[in-house]
Amino acid sequence: MIEILSPTQLAQARISGSLVGDILATLKDRVRVGTNLLEIDGWTRTMIEDAGATSCYVDYAPSFGRGPFAHYICTAVNDAVLHGRPHDYALADGDLLTLDLAVSTGGIAADSAISFIVGEARPAESVELIEATERALEAAIAVAGPGARIGDLSHVIGTTLMEAGYSVNLEFGGHGIGSSMHQDPHVANAGRPGRGYRLRPGLLLALEPWVMADTDRLIVDADGWTLRSATGCRTAHSEHTIAITDDGAEVLTLPSRVANAPSVTSS
Q1: Are 205 and 182 contacting, i.e. CB atoms less than 8 angstroms apart?
Q2: What's the rounded Cα separation, in Å, for the pair 139 and 153?
Q3: Using one digit for the tens of pLDDT, what is the confidence trace for 81-138?
Q4: What element of type H or E holds 114?
Q5: Residues of the signal sequence (predicted)?
Q6: C-alpha separations of 162 from 159, 166, 192, 198, 219 in Å
Q7: Binding site for a divalent metal cation: which residues?
Q8: Could you list the residue range(s) of the whole structural domain that residue 30 is in?
Q9: Which residues are annotated as a binding site?
Q10: Which residues lie below 8 Å from residue 60, measured CB to CB, with a gap of 6+?
């Protein structure tokens, strides 16, 4: 199903998106060396419930997972990249942590992910992975707008990642979002420009470039959920929910302190 949101629904999507962005920003500020992944899950649950929102994950039970996810946020560390199920692990200095969060308010969902390094260490490989996914996400947002096609977004994502030296896995990618978390159209992380669904105002997309340092092959963890690099290499994942507008694309999942910051103009 491809869903086109009404102006009222789009206003609700902004509320959901801002909440997702604020929760992720709060978690990034709070995480320290020694923070347990289960603590992060607990903090997330509290913030979702305090906001009167609904988790998109806790009861999520798709065909590719093993039963309900049963947690409130995805926490992927180092070689884990997608669907990282929180478990009893204390973060170490230099760990590469990805937090992926989706919540719904008023019946409209938003989805976002951030990758960052814990503590003071800054391994060059991890920095480069994160920056590549962020560049790919920015590039896709820049070409999104009415009349563009899904293949245009996929093409710039894949080109950006491959130019950075990474191979691209096409099993999981971006997706439509709205009254449910995962909808059509699928947004692959590589593709041919000028192909696929033509974007229309009111369409919401969750764009999510992700890469692994030296492979494009995934393996499934024993928990039945967490997807890891087949070689044990490090990974990164960046995601925003965007709304297609009459004249471009609006990023909905920025933290409110960023979304509401005054613009700066050069003289």
Answers
A1: no
A2: 8
A3: 999 999 999 999 999 999 999 999 999 999 999 999 999 999 999 999 999 999 999 9
A4: strand 108-117
A5: none
A6: 5, 5, 14, 25, 21
A7: 100, 111, 175, 208, 239
A8: 7-255
A9: 83, 100, 111, 175, 182, 208, 239
A10: 68, 69, 181
Which letter does DSSP use for residue 119 in this model? Answer: S
* 204 within a domain of the structure (yes/no): yes
What are the residues facing 235 on neighbouring strands?
A: 212
Those residues with Cβ within 8 angstroms of residue 90's Cβ, 6 or more apart along the chain or in another chain = 34, 35, 36
For residue 190, the SS3 value is coil
139 is a domain residue: yes
- Binding residues for substrate, by number, are 83, 182
- 263 within some domain: no
The CATH number that applies at residue 234 is: 3.90.230.10
Q: Give the total number of structural domains in the chain.
A: 1
Task: Enumerate residues 6+ apart whose C-beta is below 8 A from 136.
Answer: 156, 157, 160, 161, 189, 209, 238
Domain membership of residue 198 (yes or no) is: yes
Averaged pLDDT score across all residues of the chain: 95
CB atoms within 10 A of CB 193: 16
Q: Can you tell me whether residue 153 is helix, strand or coil?
A: helix
